[in-house]
Write a structure and sequence with these properties.
By secondary structure, this protein is mainly alpha-helical. The protein has four helices and two strands; from the N terminus they run αββααα. It has helices spanning 3-9, 27-34, 39-93, 96-105, and strands at residues 11-12, 23-24. Strands 1-2 form a two-stranded antiparallel sheet.
Length: 127
């Protein structure tokens, strides 16, 4: 074996007759031994783990946003009902019957003689 390979694997060769029984001392050598020297398989496994993590994250975010949308739709429905009730109350307060009864309660009397002044008839004098 070359020097680079020995440095890369860093294995303790305690059993020269059965190399498969030797122990590795670093993570890189352990992973290499676990994958059977197949680096492509290791890349595929890591890519699948990363993809699964992002899939679960996006699924969780989608569920959270769906819950928030339902809550806001319920609030919108309640606000629309309140708006309808307030509009009806506003119309009832502006009705002519309500104005006449309020005028009687305040002891107001209707005026009979109404005189209108036009702006053309007025003359301003500066002294």
């Amino acid at each position: 074996m070359c020097k680079f390979w020995r440095k890369f694997c860093k294995t303790d060769r305690k059993n020269h007759h059965f190399p498969e029984l030797t122990r590795t001392t670093n993570l890189r050598g352990w992973l290499w031994h676990l994958m059977g020297g197949n680096f492509g398989l290791a890349v595929i496994v890591v890519a699948n783990v990363v993809a699964a993590f992002f899939y679960l994250t996006q699924t969780n975010l989608t569920a959270t946003h769906g819950y928030q949308i339902k809550t806001l739709e319920k609030k919108l429905t309640q606000l629309e009902q309140d708006h309808g009730q307030l509009s009806l109350q506003y119309i009832q307060l502006q009705s002519m019957d309500r104005i006449v009864s309020s005028a009687k309660n305040l002891n107001l009397v209707p005026s009979d003689n109404i005189e209108t002044i036009k702006a053309d008839d007025l003359i301003a004098i500066n002294r």
